[in-house]
Amino acid sequence: MSTWIFYSARGTCALATHIALHESGAAFELRLVDFAAQGQQAPEFLSVNPKGRVPALVTERGILTETPALLAFVAQQFPQAALAPLDDAFGLAKLQEFNSYLCSTVHVSHAHKHRGARWADEPEAHEAMRRKVSANMTAHMNLIEAQLSSDHVLGAHYSVADTYLYVVTGWLAGDGVDIAQFPRLQAHRARVAQRPAVQRAERELQG
Fold it and tell me: Would you call 56 helix, strand, or coil by DSSP?
């Protein structure tokens, strides 16, 4: 297997895959995209991912994008890392269910804070979206808190769903949500933060 190239950016959901790559022991080259300088719209990056977003993973078979897809791919490519219940169809579906919810619902609610132009042109509409972020994120976290009955998303076993949840809970303070009101999520975040792969990925993002 050749060395993969992984495109990420600070403060984005790409951190979930970044952590998973370290957890798996994958060989990869990290390339940071500078969103502040509109690096995601540079021709060089658009040739990799025309969506202009991260994460993007260049493999020997082609380019993959979208966090749930990348997390599943890493888990399947490195089964020895036990990052997903690959031999349990129902368990794997539950992992995909959780990651899909983070991607399609929670992340979209978070994006309304700064990305209102994706959905409306009027400044007053953007402001209305921003005002809803805290309430929407709180509702999402209430749902996840109620379902998080063990140390990890899937129970006793750490998985790529935990890397994704770790990233999302890192956005809460900026969204006006106090994680302390969710003791299970707060404990989960603290637990995952102690993992060497997480600490390594965080250091690499800081440059």
Answer: strand
Q: What DSSP character marks residue 152?
A: B
Alpha-carbon gap, residue 67 to 118, rounded angstroms: 19
Using only C-alpha atoms, the chain has a radius of gyration, in whole angstroms, of 17
pTM for this predicted structure: 0.94
Q: Secondary structure of 87-140 in the HEC alphabet?
A: CCHHHHHHHHHHHHHHHHHHHHHHHCCCCHHHCCCCHHHHHHHHHHHHHHHHHH
Query: Nearest 5 degrees, angle CA 68-CA 34-CA 167?
Result: 35
Give start and end residues of each alpha helix (H) in the chain: 14-24, 43-46, 67-77, 89-101, 107-111, 123-147, 160-169, 183-193, 196-206
8-12 LR contacts (CB < 8 Å, sep 24+): 8/32, 8/33, 8/54, 8/55, 8/205, 9/33, 9/34, 9/35, 9/39, 9/40, 9/54, 10/35, 10/205, 11/35, 12/54, 12/55
Please give the Cα distance from 193 to 207 (Å, whole number).
18
Phi, psi values for residue 62, rounded to 5°: 140, -170
Query: Do you know the residue count of the chain?
Result: 207
**pLDDT, tens only, 89-115:** 999 999 999 999 999 999 999 987 777
Dihedrals φ, ψ of 58, to 5°?
Answer: -95, 115
d(CA 15, CA 203): 11
Asked whether the bond before 55 is cis by omega within 30 degrees of 0, the reply is yes
Tell me the β-bridge partners of 5.
29, 58
